[in-house]
Amino acid sequence: MSPDLRDRLLRLNADLADCAIDPEQVVWLACDLLIADLDSPALQELAGESPTRLEQRDAAALVKQVLVELGITLMTEDEATWYLGRETARRILAGAPRAEWNYATWRITLQVNDENDGVYAALNTYEHDPEPFLGYVREYLRRAEEQLTEW
Question: What is the mean pLDDT of the chain?
Answer without folding.
Answer: 95
